[in-house]
Design brief:
Blueprint lengths: L2 E8 L1 H5 L3 H10 L3 E8 L3 H7 L9 H8 L4 E9 L1 H9 L12 H5 L8 E3 L3 H11 L8
Antiparallel strand pairs: 1-3, 1-4, 2-3
Length: 140
């Protein structure tokens, strides 16, 4: 197993409900460490750039509007197979399909307000992490 880094974003519905500590406890209890973290309010341009891969999809504008509707917490998680572990902890994008005990099954309000984002590959994790953090910001 490889030690990896992945990006996690606690979305506006999670920050609005003060779930940061609860969700981070799930990550940490599963062996993931938080190496960097910041609470920010994304601009429309930042959200459009970050989610640019979805620009042609029907949900793009709603996703961007949602992600700028309140603060998010962007963070770098690290651990053995961190990308896969984070995705397992998050659960399916649609909380109705998420396994019991996953973050989305416990906390998501809807398929859009599903509390968390996580990188889907090690390559995307590196790109997504660099969107929010300089290497000097990440402390092991």
């Amino acid at each position: 197993m490889a030690i990896e880094r992945t990006l996690s974003i606690l979305k506006p519905d999670a920050t609005r409900r003060n779930l940061t500590g609860h969700i981070n406890a799930i990550f940490e209890d599963a062996g993931l460490a938080v190496l960097a973290q910041k609470r920010i309010l994304l601009t429309r341009a930042q959200a459009e750039s970050f989610y640019g891969v979805h620009r042609e999809r029907g949900f793009f504008n709603d996703l961007v509007s949602y992600m700028i509707s309140g603060p998010v917490v962007a963070q770098v998680l690290s651990g053995e197979d961190a990308v896969l572990k984070n995705r397992e902890l998050m659960g399916a994008t649609d909380p109705k399909k998420a396994a019991e005990g996953t973050i989305r099954a416990q906390y998501a309000e809807s398929i859009e307000a599903n509390s968390v984002h996580g990188s889907d590959s090690a390559e995307n994790a590196a790109t997504e992490i660099s969107f929010f953090f300089a290497e000097i910001d990440i402390v092991a």
